[in-house]
Amino acid sequence: MESNSGLTFTVTSLLSQVLSEALENFRKFKALVEKQSGYNIKALRRNRGGEFLSNDFNLFCDKNGICRELSTPYSPQQNGVTEWKKRTVVEMARSLLNGMGLTVHFLGEAVAAAVYLLNISPKKLFWIKLHMKHGRDENHETKGLHALYIPIEISLSALKLHDLDIISKSDPMAVVSLRKRDGTLEELGRTEVIMNNLDPVWVQKISVMYQVETVQTLVFHVYDVDTKYHNIPVKDLKLKDQDFLGEASCALSEIVTKCSRCLTLNLYGRNGHVRKNFGEITILAEEIVSSRTAVEATLRCNNLENKDLFSKSDPFLRISRIIETGGSIPICKTEVVDNNLNPIWRPVCLTMQQFVSKDNPLVIECFDFNSSGNHVLIGKLQKTVADLENLHTSGVGANFISQPSGFRGNEKDLKGQLFVERYAEKQLYSLLDYISSGFELNFMVAVDFTASNGNPRSPDSLHYIDPSGRLNTYQRAIVEVGDVIQFYDSDKLFPAWGFGGKAYGGTVSHCFNLGGSPGPSEVEGVGGIMAAYASALQNFTLSGPTLFGHVVNKAAEIAVESLKYNQNKYFVLLIITDGVITDMEETIDALVRASNLTLSILIVGVGSADFSQLEVLDADNGHRLESSIGRVATQDIVQFVPMREVHSEQISVVQGLLEELPGQFLTYMRCRDIIPHNISAAQTYGPRQSHAQLELEEELQRPSNS
């Protein structure tokens, strides 16, 4: 509530837990508190977001000038998540029916199976940052850990199992578990029991959600189920009553990164005891895909209304899907085009999971960007994907409309129009599709050796090597990121550099080999990086200043060289730093040049310095980086996470860093029509890059101040 003097008061009340009663109760509540206080209600905040408000409730608030605010999302019932959950279950159920060739008569069973798959999937607490202006729902934007989950089905078979039965053969059953961080096992599922068979091929599949950003260790146990338990459902069997046949373990990443997505492991006894006749187990991982269909469209506008006083509007589009309750869920947003009333945006990609059907209504809103978060609505319109296709075919534009808040039917056509410059339907491929067809993620690391880290001999230094073996923040970042990325790198030879350091008796170098050798910069494995880092602290003194440009250019040179030979490699550079960079312009120039390469850059900020510059490099505010000569980055290739912020939220730094990596990888591949098939990929990958390679090589050879 707000008084005429500007003072704000908060009144809390439980209106109703039933949707149909909420409006009437709120009418009475509003009349009562406004009469008693003499003030008008200005804002309404519901602790379940805004998803369960009826259309009449929303209209009532609009007519009375009441802003509806969103509370911080923290449960599946808030801010459209329930609608998303429902869509997920329905789409999974449809996928199951289609995959098995079943009719809708089995929809109930399919829904039950979908819910079961979701419930057995590993859960985690998402790190969510909300950038809200006064909590108003029209300005909210979330940034944080989006689900990097990929649904996987595991099939199992075994060979030469140990025979524990005297008269007949063993009756094997396999159990799959996930080893959690504390070392305990979480059971994911069990196969059926196969009678009298030492070479079983189990039919029952085990579902697991593959998480790109973490190492998931799977443990496989095989048991001989006693005859007297054969009539008991496998889920009810007590494992301690069954005879143990062997166990094996591996990281899920080891399986899915194989070209065949298949891995065979030797079975061992308890506590790793080795015996020849334990046999072996084979694991096959298959990705569950509901639909690969997507629409790629290039959108532009003409004659937009100018909302700025001293310049032109900075427009961007937000596309939302209308849900059954009458609200909408944002599914896509373009970049911001500065100072332009006739903007054309980079292509947007809408997946079938996002728009569900070509006949589902979408709301397309055009905003004038404001750095404060108070984006001004220029106009909006409602179209389906089919409508967008028709606009492209006909070449005509669709007028935006302006609708006074809360007054339906009073729409006003605006001069501004939306055009669909390009429209194409295509098949999407997942990260695993590319990995299993031979693409690799190659890891590189660069470590800050500037003096602001403190004397490495002092326990207060960020570079202090603790004799007890406790890792410092640099070591933690190297291990956590390296342990994940290494599975996608076949030779596990990682370039490792330092910057801002000085060899004893030498000069400051802003890109030196961490291992100290004058030749190749590669070291072997994550352990090699750790050893090279410890050695460099003995052989280099900390100096300065903090310059990123050199290591970014070095990584870009490696990526360009790889493109020359049509290698199916995508590079991931990890930069760990503690301070403010002093070559901001040169760094941005280097990043813009590298944005057209097979390269992503992960930046970890350690210590307590001001990292606002690094947030700018991350370009998550909708503005892509622009070089000193006016060239705009092809795509955002940087992800920044401050170590202190991540650990204060009790999640891994890897989760924050790898948030955008799959999207950056896939964007690069899709924009160049690179498909994950060995022959086709090679054919597409070479010729389409030739001109770009020459252009990039020329730019990399130019002086940094050009």
From TrEMBL:
Keywords: Calcium, Cell membrane, Lipoprotein, Membrane, Metal-binding, Plant defense, Repeat. GO terms for cellular component: plasma membrane. It is a lipid-anchor. GO terms for biological process: cellular response to calcium ion; defense response; DNA integration. GO terms for molecular function: calcium-dependent phospholipid binding; metal ion binding; nucleic acid binding. Residues 139-265, 275-405 form the C2 domain. InterPro entries: C2_dom, C2_domain_sf, C2B_Copine, Copine, Copine_C, Integrase_cat-core, RNaseH-like_sf, RNaseH_sf. It is found in: Cell membrane. Residues 1-146 form the Integrase catalytic domain. PANTHER family: COPINE (PTHR10857), PROTEIN BONZAI 3 (PTHR10857:SF120). Belongs to the copine family. This is Protein BONZAI 2. It comes from Capsicum baccatum.
